Amino acid sequence: MITQITKGIKITVKTSFEGTFFKNYKMHFAFGYCITIENQSKDSVQLTTRHWQIFDALNRVEIVDGEGVIGKKPVIKPGESYSYNSGCLLTSPIGAMRGHFNMINFTSTRRFRVLVPTFKLHAPFALN
Protein backbone atom coordinates (compact mmCIF):
# COMPACT_ATOMS: atom_id res chain seq x y z
CA MET A 1 0.00 0.00 0.00
CA ILE A 2 1.29 3.46 -0.99
CA THR A 3 0.16 6.68 0.74
CA GLN A 4 0.77 10.40 0.21
CA ILE A 5 -0.84 13.58 1.57
CA THR A 6 -1.08 16.80 -0.46
CA LYS A 7 -2.83 19.89 0.98
CA GLY A 8 -4.82 17.79 3.44
CA ILE A 9 -5.92 15.20 0.88
CA LYS A 10 -4.61 11.70 1.60
CA ILE A 11 -4.23 9.30 -1.33
CA THR A 12 -3.87 5.57 -0.65
CA VAL A 13 -3.23 3.06 -3.45
CA LYS A 14 -3.53 -0.74 -3.33
CA THR A 15 -2.63 -2.78 -6.42
CA SER A 16 -3.36 -6.29 -7.66
CA PHE A 17 -2.36 -8.52 -10.55
CA GLU A 18 -5.48 -9.68 -12.42
CA GLY A 19 -4.00 -12.09 -14.96
CA THR A 20 -2.74 -12.44 -18.51
CA PHE A 21 -4.46 -12.71 -21.87
CA PHE A 22 -3.80 -12.35 -25.56
CA LYS A 23 -5.01 -9.30 -27.44
CA ASN A 24 -4.07 -8.60 -31.06
CA TYR A 25 -1.66 -11.55 -31.00
CA LYS A 26 0.28 -10.08 -28.03
CA MET A 27 0.45 -11.12 -24.41
CA HIS A 28 -0.99 -8.51 -22.05
CA PHE A 29 -0.80 -8.26 -18.27
CA ALA A 30 -3.83 -6.88 -16.44
CA PHE A 31 -3.44 -4.91 -13.22
CA GLY A 32 -6.05 -3.51 -10.89
CA TYR A 33 -5.75 -0.70 -8.41
CA CYS A 34 -7.94 0.73 -5.68
CA ILE A 35 -7.51 4.40 -4.83
CA THR A 36 -8.91 5.95 -1.66
CA ILE A 37 -9.08 9.74 -1.45
CA GLU A 38 -9.49 10.92 2.14
CA ASN A 39 -10.23 14.56 2.92
CA GLN A 40 -8.28 15.48 6.05
CA SER A 41 -8.72 19.22 5.42
CA LYS A 42 -11.41 21.49 6.86
CA ASP A 43 -12.99 22.27 3.47
CA SER A 44 -15.15 20.30 1.03
CA VAL A 45 -13.36 19.50 -2.23
CA GLN A 46 -14.29 18.09 -5.61
CA LEU A 47 -12.15 15.99 -7.91
CA THR A 48 -12.50 17.44 -11.42
CA THR A 49 -9.85 15.79 -13.65
CA ARG A 50 -7.10 13.17 -13.58
CA HIS A 51 -3.69 12.76 -15.18
CA TRP A 52 -1.79 9.46 -15.34
CA GLN A 53 1.62 8.41 -16.58
CA ILE A 54 1.68 4.65 -17.11
CA PHE A 55 5.10 3.03 -17.53
CA ASP A 56 5.89 -0.50 -18.56
CA ALA A 57 9.23 -2.29 -18.42
CA LEU A 58 9.51 -2.21 -22.21
CA ASN A 59 10.11 1.56 -21.95
CA ARG A 60 6.67 2.50 -23.18
CA VAL A 61 4.92 5.46 -21.49
CA GLU A 62 1.22 6.13 -21.88
CA ILE A 63 -0.33 9.44 -20.83
CA VAL A 64 -4.01 9.46 -19.83
CA ASP A 65 -5.94 12.66 -19.10
CA GLY A 66 -9.64 12.79 -18.43
CA GLU A 67 -12.63 14.16 -16.59
CA GLY A 68 -13.18 12.81 -13.08
CA VAL A 69 -12.55 9.15 -12.21
CA ILE A 70 -14.61 6.23 -13.52
CA GLY A 71 -17.15 8.69 -14.88
CA LYS A 72 -17.63 10.58 -11.61
CA LYS A 73 -16.49 13.89 -10.12
CA PRO A 74 -16.88 13.15 -6.42
CA VAL A 75 -17.38 15.83 -3.79
CA ILE A 76 -15.56 14.85 -0.60
CA LYS A 77 -16.50 16.58 2.64
CA PRO A 78 -14.07 17.04 5.56
CA GLY A 79 -13.44 13.72 7.31
CA GLU A 80 -14.95 11.70 4.46
CA SER A 81 -13.32 9.51 1.83
CA TYR A 82 -14.04 8.24 -1.66
CA SER A 83 -12.71 4.97 -3.08
CA TYR A 84 -12.77 3.58 -6.59
CA ASN A 85 -11.33 0.64 -8.50
CA SER A 86 -9.80 0.76 -11.94
CA GLY A 87 -7.08 -0.95 -13.92
CA CYS A 88 -4.65 -0.91 -16.80
CA LEU A 89 -3.01 -3.24 -19.30
CA LEU A 90 0.74 -3.55 -19.81
CA THR A 91 2.68 -5.46 -22.44
CA SER A 92 5.22 -6.52 -19.80
CA PRO A 93 4.77 -8.07 -16.34
CA ILE A 94 6.38 -5.08 -14.58
CA GLY A 95 5.43 -1.41 -14.67
CA ALA A 96 4.36 1.58 -12.64
CA MET A 97 1.91 4.46 -12.56
CA ARG A 98 1.92 7.97 -11.14
CA GLY A 99 -0.16 11.05 -11.63
CA HIS A 100 -2.36 13.66 -10.04
CA PHE A 101 -5.94 14.74 -9.50
CA ASN A 102 -7.03 18.30 -10.12
CA MET A 103 -9.45 19.45 -7.44
CA ILE A 104 -11.38 22.52 -6.40
CA ASN A 105 -11.75 23.77 -2.83
CA PHE A 106 -15.38 24.82 -2.32
CA THR A 107 -14.55 27.32 0.46
CA SER A 108 -11.83 29.29 -1.34
CA THR A 109 -12.92 28.33 -4.92
CA ARG A 110 -9.25 27.68 -5.63
CA ARG A 111 -8.11 24.85 -7.84
CA PHE A 112 -5.25 22.67 -6.68
CA ARG A 113 -3.39 19.51 -7.61
CA VAL A 114 -3.19 16.38 -5.45
CA LEU A 115 -0.27 14.09 -6.24
CA VAL A 116 -0.67 10.35 -6.62
CA PRO A 117 2.68 8.78 -5.71
CA THR A 118 4.37 6.30 -8.03
CA PHE A 119 3.01 2.82 -7.45
CA LYS A 120 4.46 -0.37 -8.86
CA LEU A 121 2.60 -2.92 -10.93
CA HIS A 122 4.10 -6.40 -11.10
CA ALA A 123 2.99 -9.92 -11.75
CA PRO A 124 3.94 -12.20 -8.82
CA PHE A 125 5.95 -14.52 -11.09
CA ALA A 126 8.06 -11.61 -12.39
CA LEU A 127 9.81 -10.94 -9.07
CA ASN A 128 11.85 -13.33 -6.95
TrEMBL record:
Start and end residues of each ApaG domain: 3-128
InterPro entries for the chain: ApaG_domain, ApaG_sf
Transmembrane segments: none
Classification via PROSITE patterns: APAG
A single BP term in Gene Ontology: error-free translesion synthesis
Entries under Pfam families matching the protein: DUF525
Coiled-coil residue spans: none
Protein name listed in UniProt: CO2+/MG2+ efflux protein ApaG
Classification of source organism: Bacteria, Pseudomonadati, Bacteroidota, Flavobacteriia, Flavobacteriales
